[in-house]
Amino acid sequence: MATTTATAAALSMKLLIDRKAQRVLFAEASKEVVDFLFSLLALPVATAVKLVGKDAMVGCVGNLYASVDKLDSTYVQAGAAKDALLSPTVLSPAATTNSSLLRLPETSSVQPTKTFYRCAQSSSYSNCRDYFTDAHGKACPYCGRSMTTVAKYLPSAAGSTGSAPVASQSAAEGFVQGIVTYTVQDDLTVTPMSAISSITLLNTFAVRDLGDLQEKTVQLGYNEGLAILKASLQSKTVLTDVFLHGKAASSPGGRATRARA
What we know:
2 domains; six-stranded antiparallel beta sheet; disordered N terminus
């Protein structure tokens, strides 16, 4: 599994475990945990391969990643960059906020400025003024002269710097509302939590003896985040695999308490 030196603030969630069946029924999770889980949807495939390790991937995607990584630059098109495939940009801000345990680089809200050019004869010929290009030196369709005069571009109000704080604030807030606690099932199905939904789940799992249930609070750090990402690509019992049967199950910080009837 890939490792990192980055330090992420640990999150926690409370598991409800069926001790007899040795499985996690569901977990009680905060907004921050759910933001992290949903952020996995925004990861490009290559980023997921890079994080969990190409040898740990199920199927052939890991082989594609390794092939690009090993491909000599002689066989790469001029102007093409291997990093565009191996380290693609994560477009969703929800995947790069501080709630992400994987500590991906934040998406820049500043867009690169493009320069436009007009014909040098546009002051003499009005028809030349109809044409603009982003290619310096392109021939003017009307007079044939080179288009080298820089045109002044006025951005729309939406693209002005005044909207940047709003975008940054939205990214910092993540994806889901923090007004409720969420239920995360073993297969990572996420729903808002309520007393009725919890009882319904217990009935769904055919729980007969509440004494067989155990609450356990677990910590989610970088390693657990990677384990969840990896298990989500391979399994339908992610929480059980990671926190009961996997390496993350022995991570320090777990606290077990007997469930109350």
